[in-house]
Amino acid sequence: MSSIPGELEMKAYQFFQRSCALVLTLLVAGVASAQQSQTDSQGFKVIVPANISITAPDAVELTHDQSDNNQTFPAQSWIVKGNLLNGVNVSFATASPFVHTSGNFKRDAGLALALGTTQGPATWTITTPTDATNYGNSVDSASVAASSNGVGRADLDLTVTFVTEQFGIFAAGDYNLTVVGTVAGN
Length: 186
What we know:
single chain, alpha+beta, Immunoglobulin-like, four-stranded antiparallel β-sheet, 38% strand, rod-shaped
């Protein structure tokens, strides 16, 4: 019987060694996997469409002061926006002088353009600051212009003048003029 307890002790000891080896292996594997790391990434992108726009202020009117002085409207701020890398060109034009609603009388129109407030990295330049119609010499149109060299927005201040010369040589009534603003990419 003495050999059986020895065998049992030996088997128990071997079992203990194998169990310890297994626990140690699992412990080392756990530590090793805890020391390993993984990374991954995700990209984010915003697509900004190209956009240019021009926005006119509301229509304005004034009553002539009955003097020989030209009648100048307050400067009107047109909002111009352009996110194009090369900037934009802007023009303001009238295809006719002021015309009486009867169609029988005309008065010349003067246009003047000035730079108001700007935002963004673009540099804005007034390329044609003034122009006027001269219907007596068959010049019925006038235009002024500006440009930018990059991304930005600007308030472009347009001043329109009703050229009087001498009060009393043109009919009473309403004289109309339309200015069209156009923006295009460079």
